[in-house]
Amino acid sequence: MSGSQSGLVCPISSADGEVIQIAHGGGGRLMQDLIRNVIEPAFRNPLLEQRHDGAIFACPRGELAFTTDSYVVQPLFFPGGDIGSLAINGVVNDLAMCGAEPWQIAVSLILEEGLPLEKLRRVVRSMAEAAAAVGAEIVTGDTKVVEKGKGDGLFVTATGIGRMRTRGRPLASQVQPGDAIVLSGDLGRHGIAIMAARAGLAFESPLLSDCAPLWPNVRRLIEEGLDLHCLRDLTRGGLAAVLVEIAETSHLALEIEVGAVPVSPEVNNACELFGLDPLHVANEGRFAAFVPPQDAERAVAVLRQWSDARVIGRVGEEQSGAVLVKSPYGTRRRLRLPSGEQLPRIC
Amino acid sequence: MSGSQSGLVCPISSADGEVIQIAHGGGGRLMQDLIRNVIEPAFRNPLLEQRHDGAIFACPRGELAFTTDSYVVQPLFFPGGDIGSLAINGVVNDLAMCGAEPWQIAVSLILEEGLPLEKLRRVVRSMAEAAAAVGAEIVTGDTKVVEKGKGDGLFVTATGIGRMRTRGRPLASQVQPGDAIVLSGDLGRHGIAIMAARAGLAFESPLLSDCAPLWPNVRRLIEEGLDLHCLRDLTRGGLAAVLVEIAETSHLALEIEVGAVPVSPEVNNACELFGLDPLHVANEGRFAAFVPPQDAERAVAVLRQWSDARVIGRVGEEQSGAVLVKSPYGTRRRLRLPSGEQLPRIC
Which helix (H) or strand (E) holds B40? Predict the structure, then answer.
């Protein structure tokens, strides 16, 4: 990265090296250097090297999925991931939940003046690794800079195009009475890892975010020939938000057995400490699959390759649109969304 | 928008109505209300109503263009547009510059706590109108909220998929020696409108941003059968940044006649006042087209429907990768990029 070459640019540096300046967002030489020296080398591929306003590529006939998410997580680096891997896995997972294989990814960065370049380098490296892990490419992007105090280090928006690989479209409207609800693994690791990082809380064994790509898991379910009625990853609002939304959209009753929902002892303890319910805590590598009852055990067997998958409930016949939670003591309560969430800026 | 329903949520209101709260980003009831009552009604379309993690649609065989941009413009509302129309026209224009018809758009919002909901309503309305104006649809999106002081009202990221309509790909690498450089209209209106809005400067006749969709213009050029070697819109860094980048990428010499570049008297006066060169000022509704010399006059004639298009220069034979600016007095200077830009947060 070259230094300032103009009287209009005020160079800023931090003790540990170069930092983002307002001029890095200005469309001039510094921005070009930033893109060519820091961003492009991490993402290198022929489409990005077209160096145009967008990427152009041939697309065979078929169905596409298209999804976008902004990431504002704090801290930028947390046990088990960072905003870069989170953003790419996030878009990969949203595509996977559509039944789509991740294909082309666009990344847009909003940098705050003063962000150390070394942090940016680490984040773009994470992004490139996360994309490569599922065979996707980061083919186009944008960079903006805002003044110190008008952002928070780094915000990332990742947008993906995927190619549909399921026979149908695994939407909430496809959920059928009698469907089994399969949970892909234990709950709450991402939310608790972030909260612990913010609180400076140390665990005996370090608790890592579950941040991970879900396409390998979904691909295996598709290869097994399972009938995937609906897939949803359990991000903001956790399992609870997904169940409530699916019940409302499908107008069907869902029932889950809370005793069947796996939660690690570390997450359980932290939830007690913070006064949280693991059903509401965000995950970044867990999903729920709604499948016909005869497919449920095979789905669990496939997903056990990665984590502690279980059948946690079923879809009822009633048109109530409600979610009922059965406790181990046989009591039932209706699950409702809180107005907000326990923890802002989890993703 | 319903008020707070939980002890965890701290409602905030401003004198003129409801405002964004941290809980609006939490994945709970407030976020659902925000999306269903404010955002979805503006963008209404069947894909958005799938209410899934992404939009799923059929795609015929062909070439696609894919582009993303974040928008951090200040102020959010300016003469001739706002961050919403700017973001949608921005993605539309990047697609048009690829030779692609705008098709599917994804929008992601980063809201700062305290943003009046009325402002958000105006912005999403602008977005919907700008998309409808070119027959595109906003089919998927995301919303995040950051604490007061960690953002700046509203940042928008818009990402688009377009369907290629040109015979070739109008990339910088397609520029040929002898090509005419056609400028679609007068320069500098967007940058000066923003700068004037920030400085509280009043013009005798109000100077509006040139913010506009360029797809109608490009479509007409395609329909005329013109050979479009390269198309570039003149955003951050203005005409100068585009010419320098194309010269560097194509390794060819470009020569422009600065006397042929149209600049309105208002922009000229403001540039003198602020000490700016109109060649470097950002535009949001202007582009340069590189076409074979025999197509130049027809391109100008087509573009005159919208604005004061002109042939401003040509591509030379030399492999210098330099841009030469000829003054009306016959002098020549080499055009270089400044390190930054005169004006941050122009888009």
Answer: helix B40-43
Out of A6, A68, A155, the one facing B106 most closely (by C-beta) is: A68
Token pair for A70: 């902004």
The ipTM assigned to this model is 0.93
Distance CA B75, CA B152 (A): 10
**The pLDDT of residue A204 is above 60:** yes
How high is the pLDDT of residue B260? 97
**pLDDT of A285 over the 70 cut:** yes
Can you list the residues of chain B whose pLDDT is less than 70? 1-16, 341-342
Taking contacts as CB-CB distances below 8 angstroms, the residues of chain B near A229 are none
* pLDDT tens column, B110-167: 999 999 999 999 999 999 999 999 999 999 999 999 999 999 999 999 999 999 999 8
Domain B2-164, CATH among 3.40.50.300, 2.60.120.10, 3.30.1330.10, 3.60.21.10:
3.30.1330.10
CATH class of B172-334: alpha beta
Task: Inspect the interface and report whether the beta carbons of B56 and A141 lie closer than 8 Å.
Answer: no
If you measure CA to CA, which chain A residue comes closest to B3? Answer: A339
Kindly list the residues from chain A whose CB atom is less than 8 angstroms away from the CB atom of residue B233: 53
- Is the model more confident about A181 or about A344? A181
**What is the mean predicted confidence (pLDDT) over A47-53?**
80
Q: How far is A249 from chain B (nearest CA, A)?
A: 8
Q: Considering Cα of B89, then B92, then B98, then B99, what sign does the dihedral take?
A: negative
pLDDT at A11: 40
Say if the Cβ atoms of B249 and A51 lie within 8 Å.
yes
**Which value, in Å, is the radius of gyration of the alpha carbons in chain B?**
22
Closest Cα in chain B, distance from residue A4 (Å):
7
Q: Do domains B2-164 and B172-334 have the same CATH topology?
A: no
- From chain B, the residues in CB contact with A98 under 8 A are 52-54, 56
- Closest CB to B60: pick one of A31, A61, A150: A61
Sheet holding B254-257, edge to edge: B230-233, B287-291, B180-183, B310-315, B254-257, B323-326, B332-334
Nearest CA-CA distance, residue A295 and chain B, Å: 23
Distance CA B217, CA B224 (A): 11
